[in-house]
Amino acid sequence: MMKGKALVRAVLAVTALTTALPALALEGVSSYMKDGDIDLLSILPAAPKEGDPRAEADRAIFRATRKLEGTPRWQLATSDVSEKPDYMYSAYSCAMGLELTEKQAPALTHLLETAADDASDANRAVKKKFQRQRPFKFDDGPICQSRIEVMSFDYPSGHTTHGWTWALILAELMPERASAILARGRAYGESRIVCGVHNASAVEAGRLSATLSMTRLRSSPAFQADFAAARAELSALASRSQPDAARCQSDAQTLATPVL
After folding, report:
1. Closest by alpha carbon to 209, among 122, 135, 131?
2. Are 189 and 160 in contact (CB under 8 A)?
3. How many other CB atoms sit within 10 Å of the CB of residue 234?
4. pLDDT per residue over 141-158, tens digit each?
5. What phi and psi, each to the nearest 5 degrees, are found at residue 196?
């Protein structure tokens, strides 16, 4: 198996011929971790219990953020419900300084989605253990998503884990834009608080969960190979279209709205 610079050179050669890497995206591994590779139950703090200070803080934050209904930040949170690759690329485009689609970047999409799915799957044992209810089960208030769509448990937030995994990988691939990418990743998680479908503690746990899972994912040879392929593909796509400046300015103003 080729490693390091040899693999990158081979990928670049293929990229130059095809302008994409569909084989790597469609035929790559379906997971970088197996069950038990990381034990989040032994690392994450326990979910807040009703009546303790963390739970009371969660309730206060939920009630306070209901005032955001109908604002541009609420509208962005509603959009951030999506986890589809094309939406994720759009969400991160201003931070990346690059417009991409799943079709344009199959190798990058494969890396991001496989890693995000692995990280989200690692949350299952924690959700099952604590079975924390969503915030709207404790207090009345509008939410920006159908209650039928959010029947699973609250802690940790899977959406936050998904979005933060994307942010961590994109920041590593584009270190010159890391600050903006990580800021958007944080905001993607906070959208779950604005939306009213996750407690603040669940969003914090989702970010921590993603960070912890990534420490394990990075040691996978398959992850390393796919990361190299994604880096080569991203380099070849660097001259693609830039995001609309007016939209980026509008999004920046919206994201400047304090959530917590």
Report:
1. 122
2. yes
3. 20
4. 999 999 989 989 999 999
5. 85, 15
Angle, in degrees to the nearest 10, between helices 178-195 and 72-79:
100
Residue with tokens 């991160």: 92
By C-alpha distance, which of 258, 249, 255, 246 is closest to 188? 255
Q: Mind listing the pLDDT tens digit for each residue in 199-248?
A: 999 999 999 999 999 999 999 999 999 999 999 999 999 888 899 999 99
Show the tokens assigned to 175.
Answer: 């270190």
Asked if 230 and 108 touch (Cβ cutoff 8 Å), the reply is yes
DSSP one-letter string for 71-136: SHHHHHHHHTT---HHHHHHHHHHHHT----TTT-HHHHHHHHHHHHHHHHTTHHHHHHH-PPPGG
For tokens 């069950």, what's the residue?
A: 35
Q: Which two tokens stand for residue 3?
A: 């490693």
CB 89 within 8 A of CB 100: yes
